């Protein structure tokens, strides 16, 4: 791997937020071993995440879970260097991306670049293959920035790194090992569907039967046909169906409070009968 001395480039911190990531954290940390600082922000793991991270040389801080964007902003503020690269515990910086990042920082150190942030593609490994379509790739993300010019948004789900200044796109990939099984993807979709529904409710989105029908169908057509998920074989089909199901739940959850209220008298009547 190409490695530059800190004399020729600005130093960089790599931050990782964690909760019970003992099966992933070692891979993520080792892929960032070239960085000047490895900072893990843990929100209360009960497995060996903290022990593994400490053993591998990471500085570990504990911060009660405030939300995705909030935790990433906390880590960015606690980092020792202004240039910060954030990765998830189930991600890995490919050797190609690591070399490209260091080359880009060296150009900044030499005054040859005015970049304030960098984006790069993320490729996901799922069901024994790299997924190349369906919106999962290239899935370009801004993950590395001068923190003086950047901050994470703080919605309930799907946070973004907002930057003031030039963003340069790199070509090396960030590898993503998100779902070891179909079940793990479904469980994640359930969690994000709930968070997405809460975000809609906070924006005063009313329940809509039309959207409950149309949105999931549109999501399937988008991922499987328009974004060519079909080219990923059966894996692409499973991804598209799961994406449609997650969208269905996101809008179905909007009906839940009203439906629960309607059933309340029936429950009370049943309790009286039992007594």
Explain this structure.
This protein is an alpha/beta fold. The protein contains eight helices and 13 strands. The chain has helices spanning 25-31, 49-55, 68-78, 95-109, 182-202, 209-226, 233-252, 256-274; strands spanning 12-18, 37-42, 59-62, 83-86, 91-93, 117-120, 122-126, 129-131, 141-146, 150-152, 161-163, 167-169, 174-179. It starts with 11 loop residues before the first strand and ends with a helix. The model is unreliable at 1-6 (pLDDT under 50).
Question: How do the strands and helices of this protein lay out in sequence?
Answer:
Blueprint: E1 12-18, H1 25-31, E2 37-42, H2 49-55, E3 59-62, H3 68-78, E4 83-86, E5 91-93, H4 95-109, E6 117-120, E7 122-126, E8 129-131, E9 141-146, E10 150-152, E11 161-163, E12 167-169, E13 174-179, H5 182-202, H6 209-226, H7 233-252, H8 256-274
Parallel strand pairs: 1-2, 1-4, 2-3, 6-12, 7-13
Antiparallel strand pairs: 4-9, 5-13, 6-9, 7-8, 10-11
Helix pairs in contact: 5-7, 6-7
Essential attributes:
Spore Coat Polysaccharide Biosynthesis Protein SpsA, Chain A, 7-stranded mixed sheet, alpha/beta, single chain, 43% helix, 275 residues, 4-stranded mixed sheet
